[in-house]
């Protein structure tokens, strides 16, 4: 299974559906250690992304999956005010840029490189290290699990399932951490004992990839 335009669109739509289903939980997590808007931020962003995909100015199919994912990122940046908008926006733009038009659709290994570019973009912008209690703590183990699966011969569905498991584990493992980046860091030690909302939304993103690639 390769990453074609159809798969990229299915992924983005699945993320939008997951955000729609889970925005209250994300906002609750952000109420505990932030300002209680993570779910509504992402909901606003992905509602706008769906409007683009369904609108007259949707990305042209011949731009390939890269154009669709880049446009997703641009839309998130322009519609989401919180930290997560620019971070996820840059991530999707970097994933899109790693899948240029006119190339054969990426296989599992190629898409792994695109996902790595997404994480690099998040880290370049936010300067968070693993352990700082951010979405980096979900994305990093997701990517590690994805790459390990590919190295062991897995195709996209199996690698995506591994990544989803890694992201969910990483999100859970943010609970004992003290936040060192973003709003939650203002709480100092009081951020301990809560799951990071951005790590939780990153887990949704990888679970959506696993869901749409599973048989
Ligand atoms: P805001 O913090 O502006 O209200 P959101 O609530 O939408 O934005 O997003 C908060 C999430 O953004 C956090 O849970 C964290 O995962 C992520 N985040 C914040 N700052 C950073 C950063 N510097 N690097 C990576 N992720 C970050
Ligand atoms: Mg917030």
Write up this protein:
The chain has 215 residues and is mainly alpha-helical. The chain has one domain (5-214): DhaL domain (Serine Threonine Protein Phosphatase 5, Tetratricopeptide repeat, Alpha Horseshoe), CATH 1.25.40. It contains 8 helices and no strands. The protein has helices at residues 5-33, 38-54, 64-79, 84-97, 108-126, 136-151, 156-172, 197-213. α1 (5-33) packs antiparallel against α2, α2 (38-54) crosses α3 (64-79) and α4 (84-97) packs antiparallel against α5 (108-126). The longest helix has 29 residues, at 5-33. It is globular, with a radius of gyration of 16 Å. The protein starts with a helix and ends with a helix. The model has no long low-confidence stretch (mean pLDDT 97). Adenosine-5'-diphosphate is lined by residues 30, 34-35, 37-38, 41, 82-84, 87, 122, 126-128, 134-136, 181-183, 196-199.
What's the number of structural domains?
Answer: 1
Q: Please state the average pLDDT score.
A: 97
CATH C-level class is Mainly Alpha
Distance between the termini: 11 Å
Spans of at least 5 consecutive residues with low confidence: none
Radius of gyration: 16 Å
Helix vs. strand class? mainly alpha
CATH superfamily: DhaL domain
Q: Give me the count of strands.
A: 0
Order of helices and strands: HHHHHHHH
Helix content: 55-70%
CATH-defined topology: Serine Threonine Protein Phosphatase 5, Tetratricopeptide repeat
Strand content: under 5%
Oligomeric state of the chains present here: single chain
**What's the shape?**
globular
Q: What are the distinct ligands in this entry?
A: adenosine-5'-diphosphate, magnesium ion
Main beta sheet strand tally, sense and closure: none
- Compute the number of helices: 8
Which CATH-level-2 architecture? Alpha Horseshoe
């Amino acid at each position: 299974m390769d990453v074609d335009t159809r798969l990229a669109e299915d992924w983005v739509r699945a993320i939008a559906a997951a955000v729609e289903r889970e925005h209250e939980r994300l906002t609750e997590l952000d109420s505990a250690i932030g300002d209680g808007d993570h779910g509504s931020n992402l909901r606003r962003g992905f509602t706008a992304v769906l409007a683009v995909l369904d609108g007259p100015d949707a990305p042209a199919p011949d731009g390939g999956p890269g154009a669709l994912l880049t446009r997703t990122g641009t839309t998130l940046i322009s519609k989401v005010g919180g930290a997560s908008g620019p971070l996820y926006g840059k991530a999707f733009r970097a994933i899109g840029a790693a899948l240029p038009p006119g190339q054969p659709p990426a296989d599992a290994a190629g898409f792994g490189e695109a996902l790595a570019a997404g994480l690099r973009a998040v880290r370049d912008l936010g300067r968070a290290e693993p352990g700082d209690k951010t979405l980096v703590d979900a994305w990093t183990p997701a990517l590690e699990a994805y790459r390990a699966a590919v190295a062991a011969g897995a195709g996209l569905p199996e690698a995506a399932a591994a990544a989803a498991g890694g992201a969910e584990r990483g999100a859970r493992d943010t609970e004992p951490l003290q936040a060192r980046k973003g709003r939650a860091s203002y709480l100092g030690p009081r951020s301990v004992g809560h799951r990071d909302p951005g790590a939780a939304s990153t887990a949704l993103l990888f679970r959506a990839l696993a869901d749409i690639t599973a048989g």
